[in-house]
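*** Fold description ***
***
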Amino acid sequence: MLKLSHKLLNFSRIEKINGKLIYVSPGVFNPKISLSSVFLAKNLEVREGDYVLDLGCGTGIQAVFAAEKARKVVATDVNPLAVKCTWINALINGVAGKVEVRLGDLFEPVKGEVFDLIIFNPPYLPVNPQGDLDRAWAAGANLELLKRFLAEVASHMHRESLLEVVFSTLSNLNWFLKGLRRAGLKPSIAKVKRLPFEKLVLIKARPRF
């Protein structure tokens, strides 16, 4: 369904999201299709002066909204088209001076860095990706990408850091929550959005130490 929707919308377009104009280029996940990106953007908890990581930035929607309060936002994605799209959206929305976009897989572009806030709208479907666009929703048949995320996330957080993740009941929510606890975090469900075939869950987590 996601792949078909993106094939039908495989052209450059501008979406209006929460009052901001977001450019979507072909080959980049459209945040209007699954609504998870919009749900997360509406509920971001960004403090003045935060150093923020937007992991898997896609169009850069989270980076654009976070940059309103953040000191700086580092936005990363494995898809080169998403990196370019995020940079364009930072320019369009007047926050290019606060947003740095880096190409790479998960935490690879930010080795050794620690953030006040980490934002992640992860791929959570248990299927193997067939290309860069698929990586926006396909986490691997055994959720390999999420396992790698859980193994690394705590090392990029300090005592007062916050992690904000949107997840879906189409995947294994309980497994993911347990994984966050095993990683040394204390997760809580902050908000739920009910859709016809799933529930989107906003998870907030802080280190236990």
